[in-house]
């Protein structure tokens, strides 16, 4: 059944019983206007007449007209009636006329800041389905997306004005509380919620610390090899980097104070990318060196939750008695990369200054995501997810080690370190890491040469192999294909 309105010179569709009458009428009028059946300037019938013809109350018609006026589709003229607006709101949202012609333009000579000149882009993440042996990525196929959606839906249904307004630069208070409790219980970190800053991952924590403490020319000591993102963040601000070598106990502590060094960056729980854990004696020596050198330590705890032989190694921050350690971690490796949330634990005397720097950089991390994560952790889902992932990753690592023993003997020696999301394989037969990685890629296997993370030539070439992101079947395929690739490298004539 259709209702005819001669004044409108159009046909309104039958009302959808699932929609309120006012919403149906607004939708029908909006469609008629945008389709051109009601042209700009057209006069609409009186509300009483339209109410009678549509068999609706006059109040419903008046409310619909007011809604359309507020949206800019209709306009009222005193003593004359209601008309379609001469300029529709949709017209203001698009550029009409001829398509622009893109002509070659001479690039102007621009003057960049020192940072704009120095900064180098962060290496892009691997795209597409995960293949053996994609590193630095958790098992996305095992993440409980349905549960996460339920927690997020419940939070959004309870969203308050305060949640829409924003939060303190240091982060959402309930999340800071639950993170402080978690770090205290699981990592041995000594802190209160006020010391916790919620950041958009480790990379923002690095940038925040660099801006807070470093001037161009200041010295920073980093592990060698080292996480690329840390070097990029420090170099962008003009810091002078010094690579410190490693042994089986972790980074080698400088023998004496180094003038001008303001910061030392380390990954003591599970060194990236080699995988060794820093010994207690080495940790105490590093803390003492930092105190005597008036330097700070950035402790990157990027994936320490995943340890498959014994309990997780407690954080170095828990041993600190002089406020020299800045402790940082990320949920990207524990949950999923796109969450872009992490934490930075600061000594109490630095909280106010860090909050000020953060407030002018990005105000605060996305609040709704913080609230969802807070609920996910406080409801116990986070702890259960960690336990499931430890079991799954331990199985995947076991399959990798077993398959490597069978197929890669004499070609690649897998590190015995049993922690994290990836491990290191040491190359035999004088095979170059970059050559091995290229040969593996030709067989649809992803490995990163260890030299990619080093600032100086390596005494021993190796490959970084991720095992967490792929299932056991793909791991076995990857080992078989990698064995073929490395055997080809061994047989190829040296250049």
Short description:
This protein folds into three domains: 3-91, Arc Repressor Mutant, subunit A; 146-379, Aspartate Aminotransferase, domain 2 (3-Layer(aba) Sandwich); 384-491, Aspartate Aminotransferase, domain 1. The protein is built from 15 helices and 18 strands.
Helix/strand layout:
Blueprint: E1 3-5, E2 10-12, H1 21-35, E3 43-44, H2 47-54, H3 58-71, E4 74-77, E5 81-84, H4 114-118, H5 145-157, H6 161-165, H7 173-187, E6 196-199, H8 202-213, E7 219-223, H9 228-236, E8 240-244, E9 246-247, E10 250-251, E11 261-266, H10 280-293, E12 296-300, E13 325-330, E14 342-345, H11 351-361, H12 367-378, H13 381-407, E15 412-414, E16 422-427, H14 433-441, E17 448-449, E18 462-466, H15 472-491
Parallel strand pairs: 7-8, 7-11, 11-12, 12-13
Antiparallel strand pairs: 1-2, 3-5, 4-5, 6-14, 9-10, 13-14, 15-16, 16-18, 17-18
Helix pairs in contact: 1-3, 2-3, 5-12, 7-12, 8-9, 8-11, 13-15, 14-15
How would you describe what is shown here?
This protein has 495 residues and is of the alpha+beta class. The protein has three domains: 3-91, Arc Repressor Mutant, subunit A, CATH 1.10.10; 146-379, Type I PLP-dependent aspartate aminotransferase-like (Major domain) (Aspartate Aminotransferase, domain 2, 3-Layer(aba) Sandwich); 384-491, Aspartate Aminotransferase, domain 1 (Alpha-Beta Complex), CATH 3.90.1150.10. The protein has 15 helices and 18 strands. The chain has helices at 21-35, 47-54, 58-71, 114-118, 145-157, 161-165, 173-187, 202-213, 228-236, 280-293, 351-361, 367-378, 381-407, 433-441, 472-491; strands at 3-5, 10-12, 43-44, 74-77, 81-84, 196-199, 219-223, 240-244, 246-247, 250-251, 261-266, 296-300, 325-330, 342-345, 412-414, 422-427, 448-449, 462-466. The strands form five sheets. Strands 6-14-13-12-11-7-8 form a seven-stranded mixed beta sheet, with helices on both faces. A four-stranded antiparallel beta sheet has the order 15-16-18-17, with helices on one face. α2 crosses α3, α8 packs parallel to α9 (228-236) and α13 packs parallel to α15 (472-491). The relative contact order is 0.11. Residues 1-6 have low confidence and may be disordered.
């Amino acid at each position: 059944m259709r209702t005819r309105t001669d004044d409108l010179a159009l046909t309104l569709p039958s009302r959808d019983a699932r929609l309120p009458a006012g919403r149906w009428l607004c939708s029908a009028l909006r469609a008629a206007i945008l389709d051109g059946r009601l042209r700009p300037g057209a006069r609409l019938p009186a509300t009483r007449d339209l109410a009678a013809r549509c068999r609706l109350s006059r109040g419903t018609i008046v409310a619909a007209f007011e809604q359309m006026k507020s949206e800019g589709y209709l306009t009222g003229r005193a003593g004359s009636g209601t008309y379609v607006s001469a300029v529709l709101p949709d017209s203001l949202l698009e550029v009409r006329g001829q398509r622009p012609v893109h002509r070659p333009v001479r690039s102007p000579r621009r003057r960049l800041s020192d940072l704009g000149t120095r900064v180098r882009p962060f290496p892009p993440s691997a795209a597409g389905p995960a293949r053996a042996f994609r590193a630095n990525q958790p098992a996305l196929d095992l993440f409980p997306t349905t549960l996460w959606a339920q927690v997020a839906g419940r939070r959004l249904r309870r969203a308050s004005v305060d949640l829409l307004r924003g939060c303190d630069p240091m982060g959402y208070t309930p999340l800071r509380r639950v993170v402080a409790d978690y770090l205290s219980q699981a990592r041995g970190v000594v802190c209160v919620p006020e010391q916790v800053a919620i950041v958009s991952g480790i990379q923002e924590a690095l940038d925040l610390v660099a801006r807070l403490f470093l001037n161009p020319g200041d010295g920073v000591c980093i592990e060698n090899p080292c996480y690329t993102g840390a070097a990029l963040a420090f170099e962008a601000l003009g810091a002078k980097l010094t690579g410190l070598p490693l042994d089986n106990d972790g980074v080698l502590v400088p023998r004496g104070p180094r003038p001008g060094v303001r910061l030392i960056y380390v990954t003591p729980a599970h060194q990236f990318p080699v995988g060794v854990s820093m010994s207690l004696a080495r940790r105490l020596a590093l803390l003492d060196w930092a105190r005597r050198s008036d330097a700070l330590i950035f402790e990157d705890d990027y994936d320490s939750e995943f340890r498959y032989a014994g309990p997780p190694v407690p954080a170095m921050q828990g041993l600190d008695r002089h406020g020299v350690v800045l402790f940082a971690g990320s949920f990207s490796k524990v949950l999923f990369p796109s969450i872009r949330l992490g934490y930075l634990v600061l000594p109490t005397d630095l909280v106010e200054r860090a909050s000020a720097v953060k407030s002018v950089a990005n105000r605060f991390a996305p609040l709704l995501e913080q609230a969802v994560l807070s609920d996910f952790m406080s409801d116990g889902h986070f702890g259960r997810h960690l336990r499931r992932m430890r079991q799954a990753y331990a199985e995947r690592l076991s399959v990798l080690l077993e398959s490597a023993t069978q197929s890669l003997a004499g070609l690649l020696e897998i590190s015995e370190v049993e922690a994290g999301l990836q491990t290191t394989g040491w190359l035999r037969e004088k095979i170059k890491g970059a050559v091995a990685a290229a040969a593996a890629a030709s067989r649809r296997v992803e490995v990163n040469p260890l030299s990619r993370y080093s600032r100086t030539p390596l005494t021993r070439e190796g490959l970084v192999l991720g095992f967490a992101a792929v299932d056991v079947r793909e791991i076995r395929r990857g080992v078989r294909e990698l064995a073929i690739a490395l055997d080809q490298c061994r047989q190829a004539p040296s250049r």
